[in-house]
């Protein structure tokens, strides 16, 4: 007889979970443990570096190996008399928020591996040595580390499929739908963490171009728009090239630096968005011009 579709998906969930737990075991119990041991002996890299690379992989491993996998196994063994997984996944979902930290750290971790592999040959050798083992299946550490980043979207897909295939009268319907909703929220949570990380990285890059003046560097600022602009000088009817950065709270009026060492721009003026007014001008000589007035001063600018 044909197995019901929903049982096939539940089994796929179990099988991928078993494979996933062995991947986590490799990351935490082999890579992390052995790299940490050598770091403690002072032979490779600082201990801090190893901790930063692996973030909270130990908590993730413990959770899946000691809790989620055994619960799933129990469910599948009892399937004939109790065909459900929704309740187990509901217990799992809130803990998946732990992934936010791991996912947010991922790019940094890969950079650290690259940087320290060049700087410390013993570190590189140890990684290469572990990668040669059968358990690594000819894949790199970076490749294995990507697995947790991809796991939550995988749960989401499998569970969506599971809910779709459930017969309307299934005892698991309510639980499974609720579980899917919870996983969906968590997936959004880690996407939000990634978006936030990217926002901060981009913001930091902008601050570096501006020369890191202390009062400008604020992680809560949001860059809205940036671009070149012509400043009109009414005195001698000429224009000069300037550059604007518009944040949620301030407008930075900058001059491109001739010698590009360090910062790219020099901030000439900072105008608070609070109380700032913009008015279009109908100037035949200079099209696309507008008057920008703030508490600090008024500028006549021409856009491209």
TrEMBL record:
Main location: cytoplasm
Keyword terms: Cytoplasm, Cytoskeleton, Metal-binding, Phosphoprotein, Repeat, Zinc, Zinc-finger
Name of this protein: FGD2 protein
A GO MF term: guanyl-nucleotide exchange factor activity
Pfam families: RhoGEF, SOS1_NGEF_PH
Keyword Zinc-finger: yes
Keyword Cytoplasm annotated: yes
PROSITE patterns linked to this entry: DH_2, PH_DOMAIN
GO biological process terms, semicolon-separated: cytoskeleton organization; filopodium assembly
Domain annotation DH: ranges: 5-193
GO cellular component labels: cytoplasm; cytoskeleton
């Amino acid at each position: 007889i044909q197995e019901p579709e929903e049982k096939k998906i539940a089994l796929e969930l179990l099988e991928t979970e078993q494979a996933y737990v062995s991947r986590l075991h490799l990351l935490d119990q082999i890579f992390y443990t052995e790299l940490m041991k050598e770091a403690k002996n002072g032979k490779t890299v600082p201990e801090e570096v190893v901790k930063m690379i692996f973030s909270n992989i130990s908590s993730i491993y413990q959770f899946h190996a000691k809790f989620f996998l055994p619960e799933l196994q129990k469910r599948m063994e009892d399937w004939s008399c109790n065909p459900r997984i929704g309740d187990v996944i509901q217990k799992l979902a809130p803990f998946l928020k732990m992934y936010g930290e791991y996912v947010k750290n991922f790019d940094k971790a890969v950079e650290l591996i690259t940087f320290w592999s060049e700087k410390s040959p013993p570190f590189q050798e140890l990684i290469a040595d572990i990668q040669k083992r059968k358990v690594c299946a000819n894949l790199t550490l970076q490749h294995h580390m990507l697995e947790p980043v991809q796991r939550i979207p995988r749960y989401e897909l499998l569970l969506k499929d599971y809910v779709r295939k459930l017969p309307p009268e299934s005892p698991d319907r309510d639980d499974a739908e609720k579980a899917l909703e919870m996983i969906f929220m968590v997936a959004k949570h880690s996407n939000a963490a990634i978006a936030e990380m990217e926002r901060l990285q981009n913001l930091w890059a902008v601050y570096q171009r501006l020369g890191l003046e202390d009062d400008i560097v604020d992680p809560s600022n949001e860059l809205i728009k940036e671009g070149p602009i012509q400043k009109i000088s009414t005195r001698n009817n000429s224009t000069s090239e300037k550059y604007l950065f518009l944040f949620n709270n301030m407008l930075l009026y900058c001059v491109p630096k001739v010698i590009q060492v360090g910062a790219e721009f020099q901030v000439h003026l900072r105008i608070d968005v609070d109380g700032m007014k913009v008015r279009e001008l109908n100037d035949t000589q200079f099209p696309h011009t507008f008057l920008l007035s703030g508490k600090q001063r008024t500028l006549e600018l021409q856009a491209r």
